[in-house]
């Protein structure tokens, strides 16, 4: 069934070089003229030569595989991060292995042992929370994406959550809104607290009442709307798109129009919420694919012996839609 | 940094056997007494011996890695399938590599060449549609999950979509509903057509008007509600939870109560829709983790030289909630 494999010697013969020279050219090692290297690569392309990864792993000590360790079993955050990671790694012909720990420390340990035994080249660690997390203990290059390592010497890439929240508030202020309420998730979540603090700092005098902490649900958005309306806001900034969608639904039920009476902003740019909301939500996109691309780039550098140290913060992006701009 | 590795000879020494015997016991090969095998395994456990996968790959010709090829870049369907696949494979210490083709045939070809070159043991192919798909051409064991191969000799595992749709209708009939309308997705999608046919066949005389085809969106659910209400239904069965959520929202806006005036059912059991809906949805759960587990089990058998041929249909499960039962 398996077609007869094209061998390195076939490539060497067509290129008119020795097998050793062909190997050096294909593995990008040794001292060869550019012309010889090109001739071998052209011969390999012509014959459809596929390097055998296992052989390559043996000679280089590398498996050309990177593990993505995630606690986010729904995939809502890890899938866009993985796409970004793959964009960078697949260009370098590295495979990405997704390991879903399901937030279980024992499962995480098992995966890590298996990945080390399998000889992966490096690990990207991600999750669904933004709290710093304990570093993983492996003798390999590691980059943390979204949830930074609690060790500031480790390489971490995170979203500038405060900047994203501030951008939403500046947008509301630029539209002339002067009474801005804030509804968000649990006070025990760093993402909720960080966004709320940025909202308060940016809104200043325009902040209307205290930030209201609760759950990351539409239901909480609906309930909290009744509370914040007592303060008579002309804008409600929300810590997530789910909350913002609930706010829009409740405002409509109460006969208040969005954005004419009250402008509403979300956070996440999760299409199933932000676009299905009535009206569609102005929101903050954390650009998770960018996060994945940057994490993968740092990991490649670490694998090449040039590790990064410290936390890198990437900008989020404000996306404006009808919930603040009208139709 | 890397702790001194425990070597096979250390295990052999502790067990009081030769290195060759230790190797046979750890690789489960050769002729050894159960007692000797146990002694070696206990010594390995005591020392925390981790077999080197690359060494194992060389001796067995296997990489103990399986690829999951998906076209579903949002991960909504592929993540639960992957969890099921991992449940089965990780018990056998196989790693799962997720390859997201983003529905791009060129990207699919690139991934397949890379996986073959890397020597994966087998491939699970999945997607976000249920249409039969062209088989992939690789010299490896392959199992198709969700979207079956168009070659009936290939091993495919699919959900009994018609059975799931019928279960929802039988539930409505058992509640005494006699005028059941059906709203679903595009007439070009096999999942929409298959469910609609099962609804019509099961409802019989109770079917109210023709099935209404449109989009898999909440907006379509709201729009279509106005159309089907002209037929005065006492139940609306929907092809997806998104449609059903839109139907519930529109019925509430029109002052009709769910389920007292009109009972509503969804399909997918997607928590973010089915639980956030007001009221929460009675729906059909396609049990995608089961699908993944079964696909992985068939793949393991194929890798062991016992391939399955043909399509295996797994049951979906009716989940009852307030949208039919009331509160």
Question: How would you portray this structure in words?
Answer:
Two copies of one chain form a homodimer. Chain A is an alpha/beta fold and 327 residues long. The first copy, chain A, folds into three domains: 8-51, no CATH class; 65-159 and 288-315, Rossmann fold (3-Layer(aba) Sandwich), CATH 3.40.50.2300; 161-286 and 319-325, Rossmann fold (3-Layer(aba) Sandwich). The first copy, chain A, is 44% helix and 16% strand. Chain A has a six-stranded parallel beta sheet, with helices on both faces. In chain A, strands 7-6-8-9 form a four-stranded parallel beta sheet, sandwiched between helices. Residues 53-59 of chain A have low confidence and may be disordered. At the A-B interface, helix 4, helix 5, strand 2 and helix 6 of A face helix 4, helix 5, strand 2 and helix 6 of B. Chains A, B: Residues 6-60 form the HTH lacI-type domain. Chains A, B: Keywords: DNA-binding, Transcription, Transcription regulation. Chains A, B: This is LacI family transcriptional regulator.
């Amino acid at each position: 069934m398996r077609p007869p494999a094209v061998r390195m010697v076939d490539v060497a013969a067509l290129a008119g070089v020795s097998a050793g020279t062909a190997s050096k050219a294909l593995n990008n090692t040794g001292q060869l003229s550019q012309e010889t290297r090109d001739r071998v690569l052209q011969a390999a392309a012509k014959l459809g030569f596929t390097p055998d990864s296992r052989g390559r792993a043996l000679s280089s000590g590398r498996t050309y595989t990177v593990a993505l360790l995630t606690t986010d079993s729904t995939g809502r955050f890890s899938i866009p991060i993985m796409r970004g990671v793959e964009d960078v790694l697949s260009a370098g012909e590295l495979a990405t292995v997704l390991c879903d720990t399901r937030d279980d420390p024992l499962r995480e340990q098992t995966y890590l042992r298996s990945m080390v035994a399998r000889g992966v080249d490096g690990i990207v660690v991600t999750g669904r929370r933004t709290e710093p997390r304990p570093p993983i203990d492996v003798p390999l290059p590691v980059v943390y994406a979204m949830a930074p390592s609690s060790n500031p010497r480790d390489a971490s890439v995170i979203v500038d959550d405060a900047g994203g929240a501030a951008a939403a508030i500046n947008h509301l202020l630029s539209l002339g809104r002067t009474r801005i309420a804030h509804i968000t998730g649990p006070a025990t979540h760093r993402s909720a607290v960080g966004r709320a603090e940025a909202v308060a700092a940016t809104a200043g005098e325009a902040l209307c009442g205290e930030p209201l902490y609760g759950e990351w649900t539409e239901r909480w958005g609906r309930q909290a709307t009744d509370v914040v309306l007592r303060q008579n806001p002309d804008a409600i900034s929300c810590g997530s798109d789910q909350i913002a969608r609930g706010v829009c639904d409740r405002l409509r039920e109460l006969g208040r129009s969005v954005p004419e009476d009250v402008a509403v902003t979300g956070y996440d740019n999760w299409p199933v919420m932000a676009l299905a909301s009535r009206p569609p939500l102005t929101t903050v996109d954390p650009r998770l694919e960018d996060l994945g691309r940057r994490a993968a780039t740092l990991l490649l550098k670490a694998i090449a012996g040039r590790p990064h140290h410290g936390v890198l913060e990437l900008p989020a992006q404000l996306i404006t839609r009808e919930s603040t701009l009208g139709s």
